[in-house]
Amino acid sequence: MPENDEKRWTCEEFEKALPDLFERAEGGKLSADPRFAAILRDCPQAAELVRDLEYIAETARMLLEPEGEGPSSDLWGKIEREITSKDSIQ
């Protein structure tokens, strides 16, 4: 597996190394690493695989670590007021 920028990756070498590369990729974004720009440009199959893996990783991260802090503290009060106002209209 090539480790430096001087040796050129083949598609096969790159695809075989993907698990290790993703493990070491900062923020799980292998496509943002300029060291791999040429191989991702020259090997469409590898580029598609990287996009798919990044999408899967990002989706899993969102499921495990939802953004935001959840509903506001006054949410139940707003819901109760809305229900009460609708009950009084009917």
Walk me through this protein's architecture:
The chain has 90 residues and is an all-alpha fold. 62% of the residues lie in helices and 0% in strands. The N and C termini lie far apart (72 Å).
List keywords for this structure.
rod-shaped, 0% strand, single chain, 90 residues, mainly alpha
Write the layout of secondary structure elements.
Layout: H1 11-24, H2 37-42, H3 44-64, H4 75-89
Helix pairs in contact: 1-3
Brief summary:
By secondary structure, the chain is mostly helical.
Give the percentage of residues in beta strands: under 5%
Helix content bin: 55-70%
Task: Please give the number of β-strands.
Answer: 0
Task: Count every helix, treating DSSP H or I runs of 4 or more residues as helices.
Answer: 4
- State the separation between the terminal residues, measured CA to CA: 72 Å
Mean pLDDT: 81
What string gives the helices and strands in order?
Answer: HHHH
Uncertain residue ranges? none
Q: Structural class of the helix and strand makeup?
A: mainly alpha
- Estimate the global geometry from the Cα principal axes: rod-shaped
Major sheet details: none
Compute the CA-based radius of gyration: 23 Å
